[in-house]
């Protein structure tokens, strides 16, 4: 159940996920938390039995693709525009149902499409977008890049995405080779900064991570060949790391939901093997980690919580994994002052669970324990 925030809502004696041994009285008014206070039984009165409920901030997925309907884009091009729109609306709905209340779309969806889905399909997902991606076809010099950047800004996007290296489509031994020259890369970041845009960088590793650190981008994505030395410099620079770890394990399974060809599965398996080491380096160095899935098809939207399973398998504590999806994710978006915490004055994006989410055995158990997803979204804010 998704509850678009009413004018007033109160929860008496509810647990806050991650805080043991305490209950809280929480009030939400006009989309904001207006009271978060520890519930204390009155002196001399026994505490009456209460329903066990837990609340956590809404999950923030920092790397998803809500506009894509197929892994192979040629398949999407064969679909009717109405069918695509309906599938995109369902991607919003599925994402919300799993407790994700804010998403950063890493290329593919336009702000105009977001506004349309919010208004006509009543899906109050909070979305930041880069609209498009700058990749190998754009490595044509500064003049071309300036034109492309201005086109992206004209859509209303708040982010610029640089495809700095290849991905699953590139041979593993070549996947860290840069798609842009260092001069082109630096120009993109400077131009975006001058136009008050944030920058995320798709990179599997190599020198483009060094360039990202030097330029001071907002986040790097994937980074499975991140080194120990680079992790230390990432931490010092404040550049965040969004590993999107679960998608590579999914892609590596030839019998999984994506059912990719053996060559791609092999590349994904190699990436997944490297990812655990990279995430370990980042964790040890104190890099700010962000939760992102890179999910991009109907078979994956709504299963975003699988990323928790992978992060835990790769060495994060439960507290660290949850922080990457709430407080730290909000900070990466530049929204740490109003999202990602159950605190007075913050936007009332939250998830209510029937069991302690910190004790869930896996993503399936966590997802089925969701009682309500609350969004403090005001339609005007989303459009």
- Helical content stands at 25-40%
Count of discrete alpha- or pi-helical segments spanning 4 or more residues: 14
Termini Cα gap: 23 Å
**Mind telling me the C-alpha Rg?**
21 Å
Care to count the β-strands? Answer: 15
Strand content: 15-25%
Q: Which strand order spans the largest sheet, edge to edge or round the barrel?
A: 1-15-14-5-2-3-4
The sequence of SSEs as H and E is: EEEEEEHHEHEEHEHEHEHEHHHHHEHEH
Q: Averaging pLDDT over every residue, what do you get?
A: 93
The description of the largest β-sheet is:
7 strands, mixed
Structural class: alpha/beta
- Quaternary structure classification: single chain
Global morphology: globular
Are there runs of 5+ residues with pLDDT below 50, and where? none
Characterise this structure.
This protein has 383 residues and is of the alpha/beta class. The protein has 14 helices and 15 strands. The protein has helices spanning 73-77, 81-97, 111-120, 142-154, 182-194, 207-215, 228-237, 246-252, 262-285, 306-313, 318-325, 327-333, 363-368, 379-382; strands spanning 2-4, 8-16, 24-29, 32-38, 54-57, 59-64, 100-105, 126-129, 133-134, 159-163, 198-203, 219-222, 240-242, 350-353, 370-375. A seven-stranded mixed sheet has the order 1-15-14-5-2-3-4. The mean pLDDT is 93.
